[in-house]
Amino acid sequence: MMLQILCACNYQDQDKNTVANTDTAITATFVAYQKTLPPPLPPQRTSPTITPIPTETKEPTLTPTYTATYTPTVTPTRTPIVPKAHPEQLPLPRQDFANETHLFYGRPMLEGNNYPVSHYRYGMTWDGLLAPHLGVDLANDKGSMVVAIGNGTVIYSGNDDTELFGFRNEFYGNLIVLSLDQKWNDRQVYALYAHLSETDVKIGQKVTQGDIVGKVGESGAALAPHLHLEIRIDDARNYMSTRNPELWYSPLPGTGVVAGRILDKNGLFIPGHMVKITCTDQGVRWVQTYWNQWTPPDDNLSENFVFSDIPEMQCTVESEYAGDIISQSIYIKPQDIVFVVLQHSF
């Protein structure tokens, strides 16, 4: 059995009192997962404990997903500690978008789970209980082999007790940062691997895609063994230069990606909003839009949600906002990104 609440992460540069309150509020919340088809709905704020909902096991697909069984508790009242942004606080969506498929890189786990934790994808906050996520978390056993997602050079390998890569030291624990050879529009791309049990490469070392660089651990601010992976653009040490990794690494074989924008009547991003993706495999997938301004969207796509590793099939993307339900039918293509724009009338 493995643990799915993985990181008591606070990525905002807050004052000491706020950080202390966050550390107090986020207790050791452990979530065991089992393999099924659809991920569950996110936890509710109003109940002190979460009662597990039985999930009917479906026929397996090419997409490994996980259903969480919740165990007590974050706080007795589950009071959100991270305020959701107002739409006007978020960056303005691009008026157009360049449907450029990045998907340059491989996956970071040699074996085991390469699928992100559903409740804490990029830009999500576990319904306001954690700070917005700046990467993806891949739950794996301690000691599982971590590999280079692309050819590159190791620019950091070690602990962050003296080197600052997050909002404070001793946050990522043992980490590795790769400067990747495959650039994007002449801009440098970096991969950051965090919470490792050990690092197996040295600064300045050249690596090839698939080379073992370290092992999964729970160092730093981790609550359970997992790999935290980030993609950063231009500045490896600036944790506000992140982008959603699900737009940069390749989907699992036979699967593709849906990304898009959920907008209000004024054409502004709607933050922290549920998006449902129902597909012909009877699976119901879900993701929340980026919670606030601390999770930058892609420079070209200008998205506020992404969901990767959906097998090739017909799906429907649905959003309900202020009683207005809108949807769009899409077809998932392997190794491709389908882009959706849903704008509400309220």
The total count of helices amounts to: 1
Number of strands: 18
Helix content percent band: under 10%
- The CATH superfamily of the domain at 255-343 is Immunoglobulins
CATH class of the domain at 255-343: Mainly Beta
Distance from N terminus to C terminus (CA atoms, Å) equals 44 Å
Summarize the helix and strand pattern as letters.
HEEEEEEEEEEEEEEEEEE
Low-confidence stretches: 1-5, 10-77
**What Rg is obtained from the alpha carbons, in whole angstroms?**
19 Å
Q: Structural class of the secondary structure composition?
A: mainly beta
Largest sheet: 9 strands, antiparallel
> In the CATH scheme, what's the topology name of the domain at 255-343?
Immunoglobulin-like
How large is the share of residues in beta strands? 25-35%
The CATH architecture classification of the domain at 255-343 is Sandwich
Question: Whole-number average pLDDT?
Answer: 82
Shape: globular
Describe the protein.
This protein is mainly β and about 350 residues long. It has a domain at about 255-345: Immunoglobulin-like (Sandwich), CATH 2.60.40. It is about 5% helix and about 30% strand. It contains 1 helix and 18 strands.
